[in-house]
Each structure stands twice: as C-alpha cells, then as structure tokens.
Amino acid sequence: MTNNEAILKEFKGFNFEVGKQYQNRKGNYTVLKVTSTELNIQYENGSKATLNKKIAEKMLFNIRCEQEKENRVEDVVKRLETKNKLSSVEENDLMIAYEKYFKEYPNRFKLPIGQYGNLDENLAWTLGALAANASLTCNVAEDNYYRFIYKYQKLSGQSDKDIKSHLYKNPIDPNKPRNKQTWGIGLDLTFHRRITETEKFKLPKELNVLKTNSKENTNSFVIHCNEFCFFLISEFGFKLGKQNIKEIRNRIPSELIEYFDEGTKV
Length: 266
What we know:
Elements: H1 3-11, E1 21-24, E2 27-34, E3 38-43, E4 48-52, H2 53-82, H3 91-104, H4 121-133, E5 135-141, H5 145-156, H6 160-164, E6 167-170, E7 185-192, E8 210-211, E9 220-224, H7 226-236, E10 241-242, H8 245-249, H9 257-263
Parallel strand pairs: 5-6
Antiparallel strand pairs: 1-2, 2-3, 3-4, 5-7, 5-10, 7-9, 8-9
Helix pairs in contact: 1-2, 2-3, 3-5, 4-9
C-alpha cells in the first residue's frame, strides 16, 4: 500500500464536524455549520467564509499527503546524516531528501571534475569522434546510487529514464566484509578502436586507453577515468548512453568547429 492509499483509507467516510478545526491554504479554521454542499467556517483571525464542501475535503486531503511526504523526506535526511542504511522509500522522496541534504552539507559529496588543458585542433577532432561514437556507462555502489543520480542530474539535466538505462548498481554483498565491498562510482567511456588509429586522436597524456574485455565486441576500447568523464560531462555536455552531437557541438569554440565536425565523420 502506498502512502497516498493509506491516507485515502483514512479519509474513507470522512465528514466535517461542527466545532472542529481543519486546514486549507489560507490557514486553520473552525467549522461553524455543515450542509450537504457547503461549510460555514471561521479562520483564526476572526474572518468568516463559506466553502464548497467537496473542494474543502480535497484540499484537506492534499495537505495531508504533503505533510506525510515532508515527514518521510525529513526522516531520510536524518538517516543520511547518520549514514545509516536507508529503508525502502520512494525514489522521488530520496531526490527531495538529497536536495535538502546537500544544501545543508554541500561538501559531503563532490564530483571529481578536473581540468585537462586547452582545447586545440586535435582535441576538438577527438571530441567530435567521441561524440559520434562513444557510449558512457556507470557502475555505482548501492550506498552511493542515489547520491550519484542527484549530483549527476544537477550537472547534466538528463532524465531519470535515460540515466537508469545506462547506470548499473552494485549491490552490497552480505557475505563479504566491508573492506571487500565495491564502493564509489566507475564511469566508462567506450568507443570503436578505429578512432585511435589516426594521428589526430589526442587525449591528455595522463589517460590510458584500455582495450575492453568485451567478448561481444573485441574492436572497442574503454577509458576508465571518473575525472576525465566528469570533465566531458561538465564542460562539453557528454551524458550517459549515446551522445547528442548537436549539444556537444554547441560548446565547441567557433574556430575549432571544423575539426570537431571532421572528427564526427570517422
């Protein structure tokens, strides 16, 4: 049973009672008279009004749902701060909780966004080739799953659906000790090996291009470097999954567009 269904059950057979206090968007009020279709009420400031009974009940139900959700979110925020394992809660509650959590504790979870020097002709060509050919995926530990989604969405603006189809959660293994568990996140940028078979291909010297261990596609390579991947996401609009060439192209300086466009044709 969802939380709203539980509240609906509470409201089944609900009736306003004379002399009792209720609430709407204007504040608390006391019911003075009840008819089949209307309520005569008095607000705390002494003003009186007549309300449509059905609308007043719907308003009361909506406020009750909002209060219940707020209570759930506050509970999640408290458990995030104590680092206790979260119980099963709705994902939208978690996202709201992280919104509050990171406003209060902004340094608790930072994405490793680095800087990789100046953009030149060869790097612009390489970005074009990656934009046209590369796919970005992420493996993330269960404990960091929603933290990653929250911060990544803030950075990329990508939808939940597009994120989760390229995001793989590593569950906690109850049979392994804590120091043997998989923690953190791992971003992989995968692309065809032909991109690297030209002198125009250029990556920062500190990066290694690793051959993928995929049995299905032995011609693909992978870059496994969170900092570089987040650099591509934040600076050039790369996203999980296949890339949007137009969006990335819009971030390339005009004097380097021709090299980027050439790279997309490889």
